[in-house]
Design brief:
By secondary structure, the protein is α/β, with parallel strands linked by helices. It is about 45% helix and about 15% strand. The chain has 14 helices and ten strands. The protein has helices at about 20-30, 45-55, 75-90, 100-105, 115-130, 180-190, 205, 230-235, 235-245, 255-275, 280-285, 290-295, 300-315, 325-335, and strands spanning about 5-10, 35-40, 60-65, 65-70, 90-95, 170-175, 190-195, 215-225, 300, 320-325. It has an eight-stranded parallel β-barrel with strand order 1-2-3-5-6-7-8-10, surrounded by five helices. Strand 4 (about 65-70), helix 3 (about 75-90) and strand 5 (about 90-95) form a beta-alpha-beta unit. The chain is globular and about 65 Å long. The chain starts with a strand and ends with a helix. The relative contact order is 0.14.
């Protein structure tokens, strides 16, 4: 039986700061959870809450799930990673993602073009900074170092970090959906943060993961709802899927819709998008197949969850990152996953 780890997914803030994230992280640490993850969209950032949590924990790994690459230059992200790694005693994981064109171009004012090439350059620069073996340079078109393009004074020179890293290799994970992006992740990153993964549809990503190196980690986020009413318990999952499949992205380019289509729900994904874009959000959620919502989550009574975990054991996933809502759920999941 596979040894699944557990992570705690805290996500990003809503309209107001949450009041229980530190307590949840501390409880997860006491229960033996491996990691805790924060995120960002276009409100709260991922690093500040993680630093606050890290200061009040001692063993749990600290991950960004994910930092948006367009929000920071690769050297800035590497600086943050080294700083957090020192402050936390070597617990940092940097999770990165390209986000989507709506956020990248609408919020950060940066071009979304060539996401794979940008990702490759970004990670290469980060690894140079963290390794601190020589001054950092990059000849690529996306993050040229030194910068010599229009507006340059011509005074830039390759630099090496003033701070010596605690670890010369800080784990770098990528959030990726498309087949090429996942294949790139397996090639150059230390871990993968999928958006949706079904233990019953492993073929969707099998080819993309074929070149993963030994020790490659996969941290899959799952919504948890321990309840005897499975139908009602799936409703938040279905509403989340309706938002992502129907409303996150343009009509003709929605990465989440494309993924759900590759998972075998192409016709249903089109119906969901049509309904959502017509303003019929409730109908869009109702159109989400129960099978899809059920396969990517942990919803139901304890006995059902125990059976479902056996399916996850047969996947390459190394950790389930759970969006648990309170301490009782954290405890039950620890008993189900870690005490086997």
């Amino acid at each position: 039986m596979a040894n699944l780890n557990l992570g705690l997914a805290l996500g990003y803030w809503g309209a107001h700061p949450p009041t229980n994230h530190v307590q949840l992280a501390q409880q997860a640490e006491r229960l033996g959870y491996d990691s805790v993850w924060t995120a960002e969209a276009y409100g709260s950032d991922a690093l500040s809450p993680l630093a606050w949590i890290g200061a009040q924990t001692s063993t749990i790994r600290l991950g960004t799930g994910v930092i948006q690459m367009s929000a920071r230059t690769p050297t800035a992200t590497a600086m943050a990673a080294m700083t957090m790694d020192h402050l936390s005693g070597g617990r940092m994981i940097i999770g990165l993602g390209v986000s989507g064109p709506q956020v990248v171009e609408g919020w950060y004012g940066r071009p979304f073009s060539k996401p794979l090439a940008r990702t490759r350059e970004y990670i290469s620069i980060m690894r140079q900074v963290i390794a601190r073996e020589e001054p950092v340079t990059n000849d690529g078109p996306h993050y040229p170092l030194p910068y010599t393009d229009e507006g340059a004074w011509g005074l830039g020179k390759p630099l090496k970090s003033i701070v010596h890293p605690l670890r010369q290799e800080i784990p770098i994970f990528l959030g990726a959906e498309g087949p090429k992006n996942v294949a790139l992740t397996a090639e150059i990153a230390d871990g993968w943060i999928p958006l949706y993964y079904s233990p019953f549809r492993q073929d969707v990503y099998a080819a993309s993961l074929s070149n993963a190196k030994p020790g490659f980690e996969i941290h899959q986020s799952v919504v948890v709802n321990i309840t005897d009413d499975v139908e009602q318990g799936l409703q938040p999952v279905k509403h989340m899927l309706a938002l992502y499949v129907g409303g996150m992205g343009a009509k003709d380019r929605n990465f989440h819709k494309e993924l759900v289509s590759r998972m075998g729900f192409e016709a249903e994904a089109q119906v969901i998008q049509d309904l959502y874009m017509a303003g019929k959000k409730q109908e869009a959620a109702a159109a989400v197949p129960d099978a899809l919502a059920d396969e990517i989550s942990l919803v139901g009574p304890v006995d059902k969850l125990r059976d479902r975990l056996q399916a996850w054991d047969e996947t390459p996933v190394t950790s389930l990152t759970v969006a648990a809502r309170h301490a009782d759920e954290l405890k039950t999941l620890a008993e189900l996953v870690l005490d086997r």
